[in-house]
Structure formats: structure tokens, C-alpha cells
Model the fold of this input.
Amino acid sequence: MSQKLQGKVAIVTGSGRGIGRAIALKFAREGARVVVNDLDPAPAAEVVAEIQAMGGEAVAWCGNVVAPEFAERCVKTALEAFQRIDIIVNNAGYTWDNVVQKMSDEQWDAVVDCHLKAPFMLLRAAYPYIREASKAEAEAGEVVYRKVVNISSVAGTQGAAGQANYAAAKAGVVGLTKSMAKEWGRLNVNVNCVAFGAIETRLTQSTIEEKTVQVEGRDIKVGVHPDRIAAAYRDTPLGRFGTPEEAAGSVFMFCIPESNFVSGQTIICGGGRGGF
Done:
């Protein structure tokens, strides 16, 4: 293993399952110490245990990314456990779909808050540490690059019927990324974005049954009808969904030293589907 993230500390939201889990494990294999976040303590603890079993270091900070106190306490957890923050991946999210005329204010606000407001709040909370660390490094004649990777979607780059809330939030993530890249460039922070296409997770599993998961007391539908999956395969040049590990790889690319002069960019991890 290359150990390209040796000595780095990463916060990965929504990392108890799916893509977030794959990102946390990838970072740990590359030498990073990881703050693992999930709504539920059990999956977060499992990822921490996996990282520790491979000889890595990790701690869990469980909670809802939209909670008022979440961002400050997450940053505090990272600093108390590892004394630094080098990478922030704003990955947590879910879909709660409906066509516009049937979408409630609650649906709109819940999804936009999770995908757009929560990343803003976490970056805002991390700013005091990043500012002071960058200042101290400059005074010492050091150059240390930090990385922010925000997660968007092809829904945000192309739109998606039945997902106006999700698509609008994910489009906003692209704008947030470009703005933060301009604001934080002086602090040697690269801020980039990965927009995922269809990735194999519990949200995209093939099913003809109606399945739901609980998110903050709400029953959220998960799974995709096999006919829709077959259509997606036909529309994807690579002819399949991506794996969580492949998704994690696209995030990792933005976190290595080779990307130190790349900022404000959005790449699409979609198997050839979903351009701007």
C-alpha cells in the first residue's frame, strides 16, 4: 500500500455504511486516522473496529449532521483524539423522493439541510482550526495542504425527475465547492467535489418489493426496480453500477499530494454517464 495519507487525519461523514464506509477504510489503509460518523452507533463502531483490526486508528462520532451542535462537536472530537484535521469529506446523505406537486416542505427541507446545509456548517466549524494551523505553518516556513471533498451527484449536474430536493441540494454542493475553493485557497486548502452516478449501495439495491429504512424516525424508501436498473445499465457506457470501493477511489484522488494544485473542480464518477 502506498500510504499516501500517512499522518493525516480525516473526518468522513456518513461513513458507517456504503460509500462512506469504503472511503473511511480506503483512507485508513493509506495511513490516515479517521473520524467515523453515522446516525447509528452500531455501524460506526463496526467500521472503527475494522480500521483498528488492520492496525489503523479511528474514533466514532455518531449523530445527525443537521443537528445544531453536530459540526462543532465533530471538529472537537477530531482535535481531541488526533490533534489535527487534514481532510474533510462531506458524504452523509439520503434521498426522500417525490414529484414537486406532492413534495412536502418537510421533504424539501430535510434533504436540502442534509446535503447542502450540513457541509456548510461543518466547514464553518472547521475554519478556526484551519486558519490557525495555516498561520502557524506559514510562520514556520511550512506548506501543508488540506483537502475538502464534497459529494454531489449526477442528479445535481443533470437533474432528476422525482428528486427536485436532492438535485437542487447536489447542484448547490457544486456551487459551495467552487466558492470555498476561492475562499480557502489562501490557506492551502484544496476544495473539490465528486458527483456520483449509480453506485451499489442499499439505496440502489435491486428489488421488486417496497423496502424502507429508518432515518430520524422517517420511513425512507430504498431499492430500485430491476427494470430501472436494466435501463440504467444500458445508459451507462461501462454497462454497470460502480462499487463503493470505486467511489472511494475517486474521492481518494482528490486527497493525495498529486492533487495539490487541483481545486474548485467537480469530477463525475459515473461510468461514463452524467456529464454537465
